[in-house]
């Protein structure tokens, strides 16, 4: 079995964006009619919109995608806390419909109704709904709800603790994933994404978060931003700070995905990060959609890079599915229930 | 010859910090006496403060360090534009004294008197003074004078063009180097540094800056932040944006240093970035000061990692000094003058 731990619904039918446009337009002009939460998208339209993902799964030989709303679409800075709650529910409900249509291909991870300056305690209700009612197995956490200005507290501040308490109680991990960037200094997928990953890792490194929450787990996507490339720097910083080795300090709680779109990057990732901490992922259909003229294959066909690694079959199993089952413990139960149902 | 293109004066004698403390204290309490610009630091104190750098040069087998004021100390967000001008002159003058004392070991690169919201045109005078009067060969450019909140325009905005015009006229490159971070989300050397590098590269990628300034040159330090690790992502993004290949788009103007503190990182850097675009650097004495328990050598002894690479002697010469002479054309003249003087 091959589990892709990082896919967003980037190909949702137009009525989703229309809902959002209307929702945001009403913030400026309240005379605009309130959009209906039940989107007029038929099951056939959903099926049609997912053909690309399903084809890639088949062609690339992956089985199951851990699937969440489009990251760039979360846009937590837009509107008010209420805007974010409503939009989040609509997005998560749509993921739930996808998962119901294709239970063998997708499992849900939820967006959270974050909002700048609003306590993450406001995310508990939606997280609980998604996990206990919709069968989701994790959440995406935006470390910068301002979408580019970073004025909220770091992920390691007690500000976030109410959310973490619920994550621990439900035994679900969080993928640290920024959304769009409204700061012209930061291109979204070319800078803000990777910078969010790097910033989060360093926040974890300098904190006591995992002493307070020994079972809390985060996946840092995009191969960990700059982190594995600078693993020596981080080992050195930890040493200068008189901290234990990174393995001991962080690697029971922090995992990296494989969304690195060339062979040398994947080679480095697997050389410096233990196989126990790497989760297979592609983020298809996502940030980079073309075919690499140097290889003739899609940049985001990350399974190909992993297939080239001289890893033991044990390590490959960890990366391709065993670590996912460990980091997302609810996955096993969800898969078992579906097995019985089918 | 081996040229280290990235060293900061992190070991300056105490009167420099005392000047700064007094300068900033006066902003709050104008009754405090104005500090004297001529620091009471003797030549012997300067020599004493540089023993570590000189010892490392000797032990590691490097010859010349391109030397600039401490990056974290620039702290451009502090005080007013005037504060920044005064502090910058004091810092640059001290570098000039270092270079005069050890002309075979150091050559100067200047800090600029940047200030949030102030046009970089205000940097022209100090750049000109440092280059034409003090013999400096380049400058450090802080892409985020707010030191962590990124509210000034990107490096590719016309806002910066007056400074670039002067850099082109003087034929000096800029190292893109953030300063400290006053944003608790960003640890300085563990996040803000690398994120600044990554953000700047992506700004260049999506701009027409080098069409407007074909001879403008930037060095991106710390091995280019996350960029080489994600070289496939950037090639893919350029392709999606219908841009030419990165080599053609950027590599006549953008260079990477080798401040990556472990062998796998340097291996990747040299695998994906052409030797023509890599400049040897260590940033000693800097961000990471310890000895790697895995190797028994200093993390920042980057020459060791490069010595292990299977590069041709031609490529090694480029990385160790030829590229530096190309990127910093004034260096050759400065060295020749010193040769005559000695």
Mean pLDDT of chain A: 97
Give the low-confidence spans of chain A: none
Share in helix of chain A? 40-55%
Percentage beta strand of chain A: 5-15%
Gyration radius over CA of chain A: 19 Å
What's the number of extended β-strand segments of chain A? 8
> What distance separates the N and C termini of chain A?
18 Å
* Topology order of chain A in helix (H) and strand (E) letters: EHHHEHHEHEHEHHEHHEHEHHH
Largest sheet of chain A: 5 strands, parallel
Chain oligomer state: homodimer
Our count of helices of chain A gives: 15
Q: Which structural category fits the helices and strands of chain A? A: alpha/beta
Plain-language structure description:
2 copies of one chain form a homodimer. In chain A, helix 1 packs antiparallel against helix 5 (81-101) and helix 6 packs parallel to helix 7 (161-170). Chain A contains 15 helices and 8 strands. Chain A is an alpha/beta fold. In chain A, helix 7 (161-170) links the parallel strand 4 and strand 5. The mean pLDDT of chain A is 97. At the A-B interface, helix 8, helix 10 and helix 12 of A face helix 8, helix 10 and helix 12 of B.
